[in-house]
Amino acid sequence: MIKENYLTKEGLQELTGRLNNLKTVRRREIADEIHAAKEQGDLSENAEYQQAKDEQRRVEGKITELEATIKHAQIIEKTDGTEVNIGNTVTLQCGGNEKIYRIVGSNEADPLQGKISNESPMGLALLGKKKAEDVSIPTPAGDKQCQVMDIG
Description:
The protein has 152 residues and is an alpha/beta fold. It has 2 domains: 5-75, Orthogonal Bundle (Helix Hairpins), CATH 1.10.287; 79-151, Roll (Chitinase A, domain 3), CATH 3.10.50. Helix content is 40%, strand content 24%. The chain has 3 helices and 7 strands. A 5-stranded mixed sheet has the order 5-4-3-7-6. Strand 3 (89-94) and strand 4 (97-104) form a beta hairpin. Helix 1 (9-38) packs antiparallel against helix 2. It is elongated. The two termini are 33 Å apart. The mean pLDDT is 93.
């Protein structure tokens, strides 16, 4: 059974753009690299040729993966903001610090950009919480106590 791929509309657009780039730009670049390497002669000892073929396999695998992700995507619509759900932006107050996160599906997660997977320990702790509710967020150093300040 195929796992559900939760994506926001923005996440779907980003993945579609990445897929189009791989299919049009990157495939052409790799084909050019393979052609140039073939012109060097003996392919059995041609490192450039082998490297280009390896890259071609990697890119084709990524294309297949992105196509499956997009095909099976469940697009998340914005909710009313009464409780934390996938697609919401959440403002947390943790020990005097205010932090803003967006809860997204695992295919869109990017913690450095504040995009937290719904499947992560933090995402799981936040799902279903309401404004002004306390939440215990698991971290490697122990649970961190926070309060949900806003849901958007």
